[in-house]
Hints:
Bound molecules: adenosine-5'-triphosphate, magnesium ion
Number of helices: 14
CATH class of the largest domain: Alpha Beta
Radius of gyration: 29 Å
Low-confidence stretches: none
Strand content: 25-35%
Helix content: 25-40%
Largest sheet: 9 strands, mixed
Number of strands: 31
CATH architecture of the largest domain: 2-Layer Sandwich
Mean pLDDT: 96
CATH topology of the largest domain: BirA Bifunctional Protein, domain 2
Amino acid sequence: MKISKSLFVTKKEEPADAEVRSHALMVRAGFIQQIAAGIYVYGPLMWRVLRKIETIVREEHDRAGCQELLMPALQPRELWEESGRWERYVADKILYHFEDGRGREVCLGPTHEEVITNFVKGRITSYKQLPQNLYQIQTKFRDETRPRFGLMRGREFVMKDAYSFDASAEGMAASYAVMRDVYRNIFTRCGVRFTPVEADAGAIGDAASEEFMVDADTGEDAIAVCRTTGYAANTEKAVSKISAPPEPEAEVAMHKEPTPAAKSCEDLRALFPDLPLERMLKTILYRATWLDRDQVVAVMCRGDREINTIKLQNALDCLAVELADEKTVKAVTGAAVGFAGPIGLADDVRLMADASVEGVKGFLCGGNETDTHYLDVYFGRDLEQPETHELGLVQSGDATVDGEGTIEITRGIEVGHIFQLGTKYSEAMDCRFADENGKLQPFHMGCYGIGVSRTAAAAIEQGHDDGGMIWPLPIAPYHVMIIQMRAGDEAQEGLAQELHDQLEAQGIEVLWDDRKMGAGGKFKDADLVGIPMRVVVGRDAADRKVEWKPRTGGEVEVISADDVLARVQAAFDA
Ligand code: ATP
Ligand code: MG
């Protein structure tokens, strides 16, 4: 493709709102244009990248025996009523929904469990037809509260979603294992560095679920990893071994102490320098919301630990938790913020504890009275230990649960998510098949998503430098860029054409910069769009000599034009 004949417009200025490099570079290079927050035009170069990712996704799914279909983006409310998800998605404000001309409510699909379950219902009727795995690549719609980071978090984005149907939990686990390999193959072939991590399965609880994270400091997800044991989990789900709390020297009776203006553990340490943080128990107040109600929840936790609100939300099986506001804190504790404790809270508060409080003796806790704390408190003696759950946030330096290694916190971009759903949707939507005995059974399902457009952005987060993008060869918009130094120079034109034709004949995609402009601008643009291999056709064209100038990781070399094809093929083989 000659650049002079194509729509190729680059910009010098970065968009003012770009918080990450992939966003800034894609806009500057003309790959995307923002139409509204989180809504983009994918320009021709971007679309080539997305199609390449899609091709890899298709090939790997097809190879594993999955079948492609296409479901509608527009979905009727009734289907979502069947699964019981309508109200939740509306309450979460993630769903685009509206009334059609006939007064019927519809939504733009954020995901397709309902439609696929409905499709399979009455179509797969016997165990003999199982297992099945169906997938599509399609635009998804989610009214994200904070659309940002360019293609990383759009309100309209390209997703591949697959759904497996099995006769049993074991079958589901086997289908899931196949998909885990499919995902590894896909991201390896895309040329990105990634880590599969254990993921939060939400209210489904113990269901197996893994996310595929592209390693990047700019990633929105924090991941707990251990280089020794290989443990890797999203911090939303991660667990660690918590050090044992130090024992008090002697058991004494509980007593109330004045603690003027001491609202934090730090303030309290100044007052009680001999009391270790592990024996200071915080009581944090949250407001939890369910569809039909809300409640204040007080959560106790060791002074050296933090609460993970995702775990708390799962334990409560509620829609959301947020820190209680000052007014609420005052109302339920009768004290200023900073003095909440387990003793003497308002009756309608649900008291819970994180597992870190277990075994802590002779502790300090808030007095539910301004400027007051209790000291030398014991569970069992002074109060019952409240309902206790594993609610803690894993911290860097924690030991792994098996005690064999140490946890580090790194960051990643979630590009894929695989999930065992069990019979959640098939039961809710009464979608069943006849087993060997002719008895009706609900399907065991799995769902598997890949953010196609997010994967492209993640590849740039991982591959860029000051000059611009650096595409991995398998998903680069073109494989080779020919930079012709002088437009109109006969020898250069002739050699560039020859190389172009020779490479294209081998299925190698060539972008040919034949524009009438200075070499400096051409090199800048070549750096910006990041085509991995580059050939400069310049002064020595008459001698059939060109410069071989890879985008990164290689020396600039003068080579014979006759060797270009071999060089390109060697890069593909590497
Ligand atoms: P996140 O936690 O980032 O909001 P999610 O867990 O809600 O994502 P899934 O429902 O698991 O997302 O969707 C499958 C895949 O789709 C994700 O792994 C991600 O790669 C991609 N994806 C999800 N939301 C977006 C978005 N707003 N923009 C681009 N890609 C997205
Ligand atoms: Mg996810």
